[in-house]
Design a protein that fits this description.
By secondary structure, the chain is mainly α. 73% of the residues lie in helices and 3% in strands. A three-stranded mixed sheet has the order 2-1-3.
Length: 302
């Protein structure tokens, strides 16, 4: 996999160099990752085996939880282990694999959130045609297209990463491998690659965010024609979706849709959307959704 590079491994500087803070990082992120694993697994199993959660909205929620789990798993375990390691070494091939996984599951989350917005739009604005438009076959096709789109995006990212020559130093001022910190180590002019990065990842994040905001504005506007009970239920569901959209896209846009400038808060912003958001999503969707809470109680006899 390695091309045009004399560097065979990188050293991740992590979130902190302080021994005491590293132990705190270990405890905090181990708890967050365990919570992410348990929360998303609970949602996946509940939706999979509960007849009451057979609608397209929960079909997409299942894939959002699966994506969140995979997204967090591509980052969190190494961060947890490295927090107790004296030297946080990652081999070149491992680093490139992490770049690929980060963008594959990150992009998939974006696409699933868009599909969830489409589902809510059809359900609220086109209720009579909803069973036909959002049939199970259509939902499966949409998920397959989302995976294909995510694979194309992550392949483009890894191609850019593989073109970077690394001659030393090999210290990555981050806790994971991504194109932005890698660009700083490349022994070449990275202006064009950064431009491609912004036009790819940055454009996907920004345009998807705008599309989602417009779609939910249209959905909320159309609720005035519904009954009070229908408005309350739809508003509760849409509010959960909107919260997740802001939590997911705010940090993503901050990191990817900007010129090659480094800020001191970059690591914490990245932590928020790679580990924090996958942890919070299950809580948001269960605490604000009566149907999911009821299905969990029935399935797990709580």
């Amino acid at each position: 996999m390695q091309q045009n590079s004399t560097v065979t491994e990188f050293v991740l500087l992590g979130l902190t160099q302080d021994p005491l803070k590293q132990k705190m990082v270990f405890v905090i992120f181990l708890i967050l990752y365990m919570g992410t694993t348990v929360g998303n697994t609970l949602i996946i199993v509940t939706i999979k085996f509960s007849r009451a959660l057979g609608s397209p909205m929960y079909f997409f929620l299942l894939y959002l939880s699966l994506t969140d789990y995979c997204f967090s798993t591509s980052i969190a375990p190494r961060l947890i282990v490295d927090s107790l390691s004296a030297k946080k070494t990652i081999f070149y091939n491992e680093c490139m694999t992490q770049v690929f996984a980060l963008h594959l599951f990150g992009c998939m989350e974006v696409f699933v959130l868009i599909l969830m917005a489409v589902d809510r739009y059809v359900a609220i604005c086109k209720p009579l045609h909803y069973p036909i438009i959002m049939s199970r076959q259509v939902c499966v096709i949409l998920i397959i297209l989302a995976w294909i789109g995510s694979f194309i995006h992550s392949t483009a990212q890894i191609i850019l990463a593989l073109k970077l020559p690394f001659c030393g130093p090999n210290l990555i001022d981050h806790y994971c491998c991504d194109l932005q910190p890698l660009l700083k180590l490349a022994c070449m002019d990275t202006y064009m690659i950064n431009l491609l990065l912004v036009s790819n990842s940055g454009a996907i994040c920004s345009s998807s965010f705008i599309i989602l905001l417009i779609s939910y504005f249209v959905i909320l506007h159309s609720l005035q024609n519904h009954s009070a009970e229908g408005r309350k239920k739809a508003l509760s569901t849409c509010t959960s979706h909107i919260i997740v959209v802001f939590l997911s896209f705010g940090p993503c846009i901050f990191i990817y849709a900007r010129p090659p400038t480094t800020f001191s808060m970059d690591k914490m912003v990245t932590v928020f959307y790679t580990i924090g958001t996958p942890f919070l999503n299950p809580l948001i969707y269960t605490l604000r959704n009566a149907e999911v809470k009821t299905a969990i109680r029935r399935l797990w006899h709580i």
